[in-house]
Amino acid sequence: MVWFFLCVGLLVAGYFIYGKFIERIFGPKPELKTPAVTMADGVDYVPMSDKKIYLVQLLNIAGVGPIFGPILGALYGPVAMLWIVFGCIFAGAVHDYFSGMLSVRAKGASVPTVVGEHLGSVAKHFMNLFAVILLMLVGVVFVLSPAGLLSSLTHIEIVYWIGAIFAYYILATIVPIDKIIGRFYPIFGALLVFMSVGLVIGLMVSGKGFYNTGMDFSNLHPTDLPLWPLLFITIACGAVSGFHATQSPLMARCMQNEKSGRFIFYGAMIGEGVIALIWCTLGLSFYESTDALNATLASGGPSAVVHEVSTGLLGTVGGILAILGVVILPITSGDTAFRSARLIVADFLNMTQKPIVKRLLIAIPMFVVGYLISKAEFGVIWRYFGWANQTTAVIMLWAGAAYLAKEAKLHWVCTIPAMFMTAVVITYLANAPIGFGMEMGISTIIGLASTAVITVAFLLKYRPALVSRPNES
Predict the structure, then answer these.
(1) Which long-range contacts (CB under 8 A, 24 or more apart) does 107-110 make?
(2) Domain span at 93
(3) What is the pTM of this model?
């Protein structure tokens, strides 16, 4: 547990030190009126308090990703916790801050518009399609995973839970943001806090520690899956996640002061990092070995691990409450995933969303497609979601780097994590069965070479701005 608390301490220190550094580079302007003030419409642009926005943002981004991903990542050993800490501080929270603040500066625009403004029209059109596909995958994943947990808890057929969750998503997607999301998320947040704190206390009382690994940071995966690049795809939410770039604009439309950005965007990502650390630690500590953890995963997936760990540490009642907390996380991300998809489509069609009829015109076909996708195998959907998620993060990080370069500011805070994640996603696509299935050595060479070419092209494109303008960072 000492290693766990040290990692949490590093995340908190990252918020106060590196988060402040990132804020200074961006340069928020408190005197500017935000879109929540200048464009209030009572539906999507609704001024809310910082505390409420922070909680909504945390619940928006913290789906099953910072639970399922770290559980799967625990198979690699304690090295997974290093990725969560350093990925969160230097990549994920930076990504979330810029996706939120650039949206604020762009009148609350969705991620395709933000990307297009800084990377060009081709990137914008690509992101229009790619972001909607990602959000549909996210929405479906966040239907199937809570439905599975609720089915195991209640013994009610999963198909009924899928229908109930889809019905809730439709309602949450079309009503004003402060009617359901802004009103009930604080209650859900309390359950999330209980789950997180309760499980940590339960683990401490149990006396369980890391299973026979000590502080071994080598690859301990029981089936010898390669750490590179799979760990960085497996643990996305909790380290760096492109899905967050689709969620930040929702809160950019509700934030009343640019100075709140570090607390809301950077801070919510740090909060998700803590959740990821908790579940990675539970995966490393609750079972006797990586083989034992892998056996549970093979029998019922991450949902089975959640059920065993929660009831094992907190008893039947406490375990049920903890599981409900895990159920709420994906549901509170799934509804906003579909809501974000609606807004992206509306922006593309230049269709106002104030009349409910126009919201339904987009939402109904979207949910039909989502239901059809849900018929596919969950494992296949999850793999495509993982790659699409990290690819979105890559594009958003390059957009942040482009903004900073054009402003003659320290673009490397976005460029370096963009380079790393570019190498990850290209290597993964070249090697993975869902991609081109090439040998790992060749895939890595392709990933590194492609990253080098992209980086050189980026530096050449923005060199005139860097040379001609004084450094303002």
Answers:
(1) 107/35, 107/38, 107/39, 108/35, 108/36, 108/39, 108/44, 108/45, 108/249, 108/252, 108/253, 109/249, 109/347, 110/246, 110/249, 110/340, 110/343, 110/344, 110/347
(2) 2-390
(3) 0.88
